[in-house]
Amino acid sequence: MTSDTAANFFDLPDPFVKWFTKRGWSPHPHQLALLKNTQEQKNTLLIAPTGAGKTLAGFLPSLVDLSTRKDRKKSKSIHTLYISPLKALAVDIERNLEFPIRDLGLDIRVETRTGDTPTAKRARQVQRPPDILLTTPEQVSLLLAHREATNFFANLKIIIIDELHAIAPTKRGELLSLALARLRQHAPGLATIGLSATVRNKDELRSYLVAQDNEEKLAELIEVEERIKPQIQILKSNTKLPLAGHTALSSMIEIYEAIVAHHMCLVFVNTRMQAEFVFQALWKLNEKAIPIALHHGSLDKGQRRKVEAAMAEEKLRAIVCTATLDLGIDWGDVDLVINVGAPKGSSRLMQRIGRSNHRFDQPSEALLVPANRFESLECQAALGAIDDKEQDTASLRIESLDVLAQHILGMACAGGFNADDLYREITSAYPYRKLARLTFDSVLDFVATGGYALRAYDNFARLKCGRDTIWRISHAQAALRYRMNVGTIIESTMVTVRFGKLSQTGQIRSSGRKLGQIEDYFAENLTPGDTFLFGGEVVKFEALSANDVIVSRAAQKTIPKIPVYSGGRFPLSTYLAKRVREIIAKPQSWAKLPFEVSEWLTWQKDKSIIPKQDQFLVECFPEKGKHYLVLYPFEGRLAHQTLGILLTKRLERLSLKPLGFVCNDYGLAIWAVDDIGTAIEKQPKLLSDLLAEDMLGDDLEAWLEESSIMRRAFRNCAIISGLVEKQLPGERRKTRSLTISSDLIYDVLRRYQPDHILLKAARADAAYEMLDLSRLNETLGRLSGHIIFKKLEKLSPLSIAMILEIGRETVYGDGVEALLAEAEAEYLAEALS
Amino acid sequence: MTSDSKNDKSYFTLGDLRLEPDYSGALYAPDFEALIVADLHFEKASTLYERTGSAYPPFDTHDTLLRLEDTINRHRPKRLIFLGDTWHDEFGFARMQSADHQLIKVLITRTETVFVSGNHDESAVGSGGPAMISEIKLGDVVLRHEPQEDTNRYQICGHFHPVAKLIQKGRAIRRRCFFISDRQCILPAMGTLTGGLNCLDPVYDRFISRENRRAILLGRHRLFHLGMKTLLPDR
Is ipTM over 0.85? Predict the structure, then answer.
C-alpha cells in the first residue's frame, strides 16, 4: 500500500482516535485507506486474509460518517447496506457492531433483515429504516421490488458486500449485481465496498463493484498481504497408501492422534458421505471419548446449530465437516485444520486452512491427509500452489437469463420500467455488460407472455406496456408469486430421514426420531433392505412414507451396501491438474513423495510410459476377457464423464462394442468386447479421430437432449425464472391439477420451440456446471498432436487406480428402455415358470 | 397376458372383450373396431395460465392431437371413444387454436365419435364443444370416466392417470401405464402435460380388483408388461 492512499490516523474524528488510543489499538493502514476511499465516494475492493480486521474496516467509514451527521431525525432512508451470503453472519455482525457503537456513544440504529425476520418487524423497518441494515442478497432484491424502495434507498451512502469471493461467481452474485445496478439509480452517489479473500482474478471483482459502460471500469484495490505463512504438512502415514478409494481409512489412527494433540480441530472432507465415514471411523478409535462432532448440510438444522454452539463454547475437540463450514462466523479457537482427501483446488484449501488460528500474527496450522496415491500427488501439487500463491477461484458467471427474468419481473413489481432505461441499467452490471438488446427483449417477452412462438397468451400477459412506454405488472397475483419465489438457490428436494417400524402388512407403524435429510434422488433409488451411513450410524432403508424415508438401525457391524463415496463435489481445478501433470513428468521431483507413491510411478515408468508434461497418455490392454482403453487427461471428473459418454458413443458407431466406463479426477477407463488396442495399432489415425475436437458437436447435443443433466438444469432455470413455483421445504406437492412438472414442459418445448429462451438458459447451465464443456474443449485442443499410445499385455500401474473404481454400471443412450425390457423379461420369466 | 407376436399385438380380455393396448396410451377393441382414449386434457396450459399466471408452453393441445392422429392412422378404427377429461376445463374448446379445431374436426368426422364426460369437462356445449354422455357399454364392459366402486364389474375408465415406478440397476424409472386387473382397466392419460398417480396408491383399491393386477408401461415405440411385485411407490 502506498502512503498517499492511506489516511492519517488523526484524520479520524476525535471520539474514534480516543477510542482506539484508550484500548491501546491503532487502526491498520488498510482500514484507514478504505475510510479515505469511501469518503471520496470511491468504490473499493478490500482483499485481506482472515483475522485482519476486515469487518471493522468495512464498517469504519459508515460509523465515522454517521457520527458526524446532523439531521438525524429526517431520514426515511437507510445509510449503510451490509450484504452477507449467510444469515448467521449478518446476525453475528449485529452483535459485534453493538460494542463499538455503545462505547463510542453513537446514536446509530443497526438492524438485521433476513428470511427469519417477523413480518411486523419488516413492515416497521420500511416505515422507519435503521441507519445500518444487515441482510442477504435475496432480501435486497425483495426490498427493491417494494413500492417504498425509492424512499428506503434515497440516502443510501455505503454498500458493504462481505465474502464477495463466495457470492460473486454464482447466480446469486448475478442477481446481486443487478440489484447493485438498481441501487445506484436510487442513490447515485453511493460507494461500494467489497470484502474478499484472495482470488485469482481480482479485476473481475473490482469491476463487479462498479457501474460499467463501454470500457471496463475498476474499483480501487486495497490488498493486505498474509504476514505469516501457514504451516502445512502432508500426513506421513505408517501404513501404505492405497491405490484407490477415498476413505483414508488407513490414516484414521494418525488423524485421531493429531486431534488428541491439539486443542480444537476442524476435519474437512469433500462429501457428506465421507464425513459420515470419517466420523464413524474416528469414534471407533475414540477410547478417550473426547468430544468429536459431525457437521454437514443434510443434518437436521437444530442439530447443526447445537454443534456450532458447542464449538463456540469450546466444548468440542474436533468437528468432522464438509463445505458447510468453509464460510462463516468464527466459532471457537481452532488450532489445527485437517483436510482429508484431495484438496481439489488451492484457493478452497487456503480458505479452509484460514479457519485455523484467527489471530493475524500467528501461523495457521494444517495437515493434509491423502486417501490414495493420486491424491497424494494432488496434495503435493497444492503445497506448491500455496507456496507460489497461485489461486484458482472460479470465474464470474455471466448472462444467466433465468436470473435476468426474475429481476425484470421484480422491477415490474417495483412500479414499472421503461425498457430502454432498464436495458441501460442492466448492462451497467458487470455480468450483463455485454448483454445483447435482442436477448434482453426476448427475456422481457418471456416474462410478459411466456415468449412462445405461438402467441396464445398475449391477451392475458403478465406484464403490459402502457401508452407511457412503462411496462407494468397486470395481475397482483404475479407480484405475490415473485415475492414467494425470489432467489437463485434451488436446494435439491430433500426428504426427511426418520426412524420407524413397519407392521406385518407393510404399514408404517411408528415414526420416531428425525435423523436429518437426504437428497430426493438418493432416496428415489433406494430399495428396501439397502443399508447406508447416515448421522454417524449404519441404517437400513425400510420404506418411503408420504413425506419421510423410514429407516431402522442396521444390525451391529453391518457394512453399508450403498457406496460411501459418490464422487467429489468439486472437480480438480485446472491449475492443480497442471501441477499434478508436472510432478508426474519430472522423475527427479518424485523423491519428495511418499515412498509407495514414487515406487508406483517408477513401476509405471518400467511397465508403460510416464507422459511428459505436454503429452497425453492412452493405454490399451486386455483384462479378464475385456479390452480396456485408459486415458489420462487429468481434467477433473466432470470433464472426464462427458468425454466418457462421447467416446463410448463413437466406439459404438465404430462397432468396437463398448460396455461401459468409469472415471475419476485424473482419467477414465472404457471397456469393450472387441480388441480396441489392435484396432488402433492397425489404424493409427483412429485414436486422433476418436479424440477429435468435433466430438463436442452433434454427438454431444444428441446425448445432452436426452440426459437428466439437462432436465435438472431446466428445472432450476424454470424455477428461478418464475415459470414453475419453488417447492418450499416440507411442503406437500401442490394440487396436481394446478401444476405441471418441469419434465413435461421440457419435453414439449424441445419439440415445438427448441430455441426458447429457457432451453438456452438450461443449456448454458448444463455446459457450465455439470459438464465442464469449456474445459473439455480446451483439453481436446491441447491434446491434439500430443497423444502417445501404448499397447500393453496387462494393466498398467496408473490404470489400476481407475479399474478399481469399476463396479457401478453406467447407463447411456437408450439405456432406460433397455432397463425396462430387462425388468419385463424378469417378470415374464417368473410368470411363466 | 397373451402375446401374439413379441409385444406388438399383445392383448388382454375383460370378460369376452378382447382389448389391445397401444404404446400411445390408447386401447383398441377389435370386436367393435373401437379406439378408446382417455384424459387428453386439451388446453391444460392455457387454462392454468388464466388461473395461476404460469405461462406454460401452449403447444400441449397440438402435440396431443398429433399423437392421437398417429394412433388413429395405425389402427383405422370405425369408432372413437373419448373417455372423459378431453378438455382441461369446460371452456377449453373455445380456447383451442383454429388449426387445432380443424385437426380435431377432421379426426372425428372420419369416425363415429363418442365423447364421455369427465370431471374436468362435464359439458363442453357452452363453449361450442360436442355433446357428451356419461357412459357407454361395449358388450358386458362399462366405459366411464370415473369408475364405480364395484370391483366385480367389468369396467374401463380413465381419470386416475396411472403411472408405474420401478428401480432397475439403480436407476429410478417412472412411466405412464395401463393399470389392469381381472375385471378392470384404467387407461393412462394421453394429454401431453398430464401428471400421474402411482399404481400402488391405496385409492385404487376401491375400484380395482386385487386379482391378477399388472401394469403395462408406455415406452417410446412399444409396451412393457410388469407385475406388481416389481413396482415401487412414490413418496
Answer: yes
